[in-house]
Amino acid sequence: MSRMVVVEPGPLALVEDLGRPGLARLGVAGSGALDRSALRLANRLVGNPDGAAGLEILMGGFRARFDDEAWLAVTGAWGPVALDDRPAPPYTALRASAGAMLEIGTAERGVRYVLAVRGGFDEPVTLGSRSRDTLAAIGPGPVAAGAALSIGARPEASVPLLDRAAAFPPPAGAVTLALMPGPRAEWFTDAARTTLFDAEWRLSGQADRVGARLTGPALERRVPGELASEATVPGSIQVAGDGRPTILLADRPVTGGYPVIAIVAPASLDAVAQLRPGQEVRFRHA
């Protein structure tokens, strides 16, 4: 079986597929790639099924060597990519020879690269998925230097002849996210609901795969106190006692006690995965 040996993993590299949906009743979040469209695209570029396991690489600083010839693609964040010390284009199917070294530099746009290899990473399956859930510590652990990741059997589909997709780096400026009404919107004043859409928000330094906390004005509550824990979904915007919102993401708790004022529409969630600290966020009605 072919392998990819990780020389330097960077700040955080995780095996992620499209997750383990449908297990919230057991207290298990869906997890999976935060930028799902980037994973699907990377997989399509190398002829994999959309849900094949790839690597989610935070910010870059990643180096790996291929034992055998392999096809790969890097999508998501935008930054320098090199194969055997030669610059390689992102969002493109790349052929690596046996012994080739892949290097992914520091991201210039976005924060999460996605690396797919033809055949997918053949890591152990837990509850139907190869994904790492960072909150519950389910699935393969963070990739360490020296780790040898097995590459699965080549899929029946070939590498597409037209192997270059439209490549648009994540935006560096303001990002607008579509919002749907939340189940506890009535817990907030009319002014707070207006402020949610009118204010300038920015991603704080408190952001990971569990949630992304925003800085901005406090959202005033109409109903005091906390509610009994209730179900959450990816994109739920919880508002803590200080009035500041947090967007819950793939590794979130499946229940929570803070009221949810709104929910980021599924089509906008991939953009949250690529936000950088300090980047401006605006909301619109879905």
From TrEMBL:
Q: Which domain of life is it from?
A: Bacteria
What UniProt keywords apply to this chain's record, in alphabetical order?
A: ATP-binding, Hydrolase, Nucleotide-binding
Gene3D superfamilies in the record, alphabetically?
A: Cyclophilin-like
Q: Which SMART domains match?
A: AHS2
Q: Provide the protein name.
A: Allophanate hydrolase
Q: Which residues form the signal peptide?
A: none
Q: Any idea which GO molecular function terms this record carries?
A: ATP binding; hydrolase activity
Which residues fall in a coiled-coil region?
none
Alphabetized InterPro entries for the sequence: CT_A_B, Cyclophilin-like_dom_sf, PxpC
- What species is given as this protein's source? Agromyces badenianii
- Boundaries of every Carboxyltransferase domain copy: 25-286
Pfam families given in the database record: CT_A_B
